[in-house]
Amino acid sequence: MLPADELGPAVGPLVPRAYRVRGAARETSDTVTLALQAETAAEEVGFAPGQFNMLSVFGVGEVPISISGNPGRVDLLTHTVRAVGAVTQALAAQRRGALVGVRGPYGTAWPVEAAEGSDVVIVAGGVGLAPLRPAVHRILARREKYGRIALLYGSRTPGDLLYVHDLKQWRGRMDLEVEVTVDAAAGGWRGNVGVVTTLIPRARFDPTSTVALVCGPEIMMRFTVRELQARGIPDDRMFLSMERNMKCGIGQCGHCQYGPYFVCRDGPVFRYDRIAPFFRVREI
Ligand SMILES: Cc1cc2nc3c(=O)[nH]c(=O)nc-3n(C[C@H](O)[C@H](O)[C@H](O)COP(=O)(O)OP(=O)(O)OC[C@H]3O[C@@H](n4cnc5c(N)ncnc54)[C@H](O)[C@@H]3O)c2cc1C
Ligand code: FES
């Protein structure tokens, strides 16, 4: 038998591990949350909030998807997938018992530990709440370490809101401000209407001691940065999660280049002051 280091790419970092779908929960008309379990406990890997995995459907392809579950649980990997093209449609169609491929976790994390002692404002747009949900779990698990926490979440319509059960629970807490808004109200919605940035001026946090975590469509993040700056949060205390097309996920192919960075390796979570020159340019 060949020694492992001579086996070539079959044991290399680009080879996915097999995970079985243990649950597939429909969030919205086009978005599904998959709970995945490693075929053997030896393959269970922890992750840091903000990291992503490369998920593959055999014979279809592979895409980067953020890990959206509780970082306190290593037995289940949770991913929330919005079906927008071939691979995400195939992933969202997977049912209990199916096998999918997993590589990762990859990328940088939200600075949840560094933010201890500060207020935290979390601003999410659409499926951008997925990579932020593990950060909320981690912060709530050590709630006493933080000052005020504000979660501001916007979606297109009430029917597009993710994690309705979590939102309800979080809203019931006295130690967490949760504000939800929709671009267009429907179906008896009695909450806020307007884009998520309209929630920023009245959110309760002390800008001199706040860390901001932001994820959503790029246009939403642009306006969010502006509003957070208007509240007085310095650029080096804002963190954004960026998305670019990816192939390898491990800094080898160059597909995800963003200015001098590779999003898969140097991101997806970036401190805003480090990417500000590229972020202001519409497409890099
Ligand atoms: C770090 C990272 C984390 C991500 N996390 C999630 C997540 O948690 N849930 C989720 O649903 N999606 C997530 N995405 C986006 C997801 O990877 C893309 O939707 C997916 O690659 C599209 O592949 P496809 O074959 O289904 O569609 P394609 O046919 O490849 O593309 C369909 C449409 O989506 C656009 N698109 C393709 N790739 C991306 C991308 N990387 N970013 C933005 N638009 C893209 C295309 O331009 C096209 O308009 C993440 C992307 C990155 C880079
Ligand atoms: S996806 Fe290959 S370098 Fe980032």
Short synopsis of the structure:
With 284 residues, the chain is α/β, with parallel strands linked by helices.
Describe this structure in words.
The protein is an alpha/beta fold and 284 residues long. The N and C termini lie far apart (47 Å). The N terminus is likely disordered. β13 and β14 form a beta hairpin. Helix content is 19%, strand content 30%. A seven-stranded mixed beta sheet has the order 10-9-8-7-11-12-15, with helices on both faces. The protein contains six helices and 15 strands. FE2/S2 (inorganic) cluster binds next to loops. Flavin-adenine dinucleotide binds next to β4, β5, α1 and α2.
Tags for this entry?
single chain, 19% helix, binds FE2/S2 (inorganic) cluster, binds flavin-adenine dinucleotide, alpha/beta, 6-stranded antiparallel beta sheet, 284 residues
Which small compounds were modeled alongside the protein?
A: flavin-adenine dinucleotide, FE2/S2 (inorganic) cluster
Q: What characterizes the major β-sheet?
A: 7 strands, mixed
Shape: globular
Q: What is the succession of H and E elements?
A: EEEEEHEEHEHEEEHEEEHEH
Give the averaged pLDDT, no decimals.
93
In angstroms, what separates the terminal alpha carbons? 47 Å
Query: What's the Cα radius of gyration?
Result: 19 Å
**Strands, count:** 15
Q: Uncertain segments of ≥5 residues (pLDDT<50)? A: 1-10
Q: Give the helix tally.
A: 6
Structural class of the helices, strands and pairings?
Answer: alpha/beta
Query: Roughly what fraction of the amino acids lie in strands?
Result: 25-35%
